[in-house]
Amino acid sequence: MKLKRKLWITVISISIIIFCIVMTLFISTANMDYGSNFSNSIDYSEMWTNKEIMVIVPHQDDEINLAGATIKRLIDNGNNVKVVFATNGDFKGLGTKRIKEAVEAVRILGVNSENVIFLGYGDRWEETKEHIYNSDDNKIISSYIGKNETYGTDKYLDFRSSISGEPSSYTRGNYKNDMKDVIEMYFPDIIFAIDFDSHADHKSTSLIFEEAFCEVLRENKEYNPKVFKGFAYKTAWKAKDDFYGFNLESTLIPEKDSLINKNYDLDVPQYLWSERVRLPVAKEALSYTQNSNLVNKSLKAHKTQKASRRTVNIVNSDKVFWERETSSITYEAEVIASSGEFKYINDFKLIDSSNVNDIKLIDECVWIPDNEDNDKSFRINFASAKDIEKLVIYDNFSLEDNILESTIRFSDGSEEKVNNLNHDGTKTVITFPTKKDIEFLEFKINKYEGNNPGICEFEVYEKNESKETEYIKLILDNENETFIYRYTVDNEKEIPLNLYSYPKLDGILGVENCNISTNNDNIQFKENKLIISDNIKPGKYKVRVELKDNTKIFDEIEIFIPNKLQKGYIKLTQEFEKIIKKIPGKIEGEFYKIKKLILRE
């Protein structure tokens, strides 16, 4: 009886293993990417080709969360991409392993190992729980695993050791200086940097970057790169599992319950979801199955994190960011105020935290004049006389504390009356005809509500430049505004379309501003919809959209009408892959049960 039971257990175990092997072979040999029968003019755009680009993230795997599918496309377009890791991700003592994993992961995306930079700081800190970001500038602290200076591996040195021969002690001041120096070593044209995620190291990297970057701007007046901030958690690692289907979804707005404060769109209160910058992803990052997706292959390199389990959360048809303008002349200006912490007015930071370990804490980022201050004003003295056309003002994001009326007085004697700054802290943009030779301006609060009226950031621009469209993308005219590359038709006869453009213009740029053509008479564009005729045969068709006033800016997509066999094959392969992805955990559980049964015998 005992022998039969053991034999039965063995047969079941072998059967499970054989089934897994067969299905894995089936999935691994199935080519389920979207192909390459689509294109976009961004690949030829002056703005997005042949540039120096830097990606700044806290941990090894965050480069994929933040910009993985974008990195590949940027490299394919001739850009030189460097990836900077602020920490070694060594909370569990796996720092050297994670460094090696990161080099392999970004290699899969096309980044050469010499373009991978490790600042070498700790992941979490000693028992006191004081984070390096909130410690004194010169205080040396120990990481969670007892390190007190930056490190790398024999092959991949930490940044400071690689340029000076000596590591940096773990101090806040060194952390900021290393961040500043790595930016100034390369002066990238475009920077993608992590934003204020719920993880303390993510917050710290975001804030240290902004602090260091502000110093770079102050000391290098002609340097004005494009800066895009983005999240690793809410729009990637912890995003909705929405991978499977005929058409890959675009990044979804985070659920309100997941946010620091449900009153805002995102964890940075000043950001609006509608103002996100959406970048198209690489062709290799578009697929029906995880196994055929380049991002999944890159995630697999992060073995210690089991990162490929998050492919279904991370992979979308776009990557989203929030752009920060960098040409404000306030960074080089002197600010004085009637009272309050006026350093917050021109520090590039929209938010801050006196304790980044506290998930919900946002503070020490708003100029708030004293209650007994009857003046409640500040003055910005420019380094030299400036011509000014635009102001961008961020009110205190507290919904209870709002500036209702204010006056901006300029050195030429002119004034601008400003009523009702955006009360949610989002930017209020004020434009006017050029004010010549302005030496200073004064901002005064005249009327307010709440106890703490104030300003998070005050930006001044010499030019109110009308930005031209750099690229466009056809999207589904649905709630998620899904980016389209190859659209797989599932019995639809009408496909509602609209257009995304970067930059987003003040006027509406939609499909009505474009020329739209198809390569088959059975697909017609009418009333902002693709109309598919009943006479159309299964196959692949093209739809092209061009701007009427600049036909060099275009997007070309594929409409794929599968036959029943092709449609079934896609569904079957996806279902098989779902099963395979669940099996490792189930097998682990089953073997545990089997082990208990055998031991019981």
Automatic annotation (TrEMBL):
The answer, when asked if Ribosomal protein is one of the entry's keywords, is: no
Q: Give the matching SUPFAM superfamilies.
A: Galactose-binding domain-like, LmbE-like
Span-the-membrane segments of this chain are 7-27
Task: List residues of the DUF7402 domain.
Answer: 332-461
Per UniProt, what is one GO molecular function of this protein?
hydrolase activity, acting on carbon-nitrogen (but not peptide) bonds, in linear amides
The UniProt record lists the keyword Zinc: no
Q: Which UniProt keywords apply?
A: Membrane, Transmembrane, Transmembrane helix
Q: Origin, by domain of life?
A: Bacteria
Q: Which PANTHER family match?
A: N-ACETYLGLUCOSAMINYL-PHOSPHATIDYLINOSITOL DE-N-ACETYLASE, N-ACETYLGLUCOSAMINYL-PHOSPHATIDYLINOSITOL DE-N-ACETYLASE-RELATED
What's this protein's name? DUF7402 domain-containing protein
Its source organism is Clostridium perfringens F262
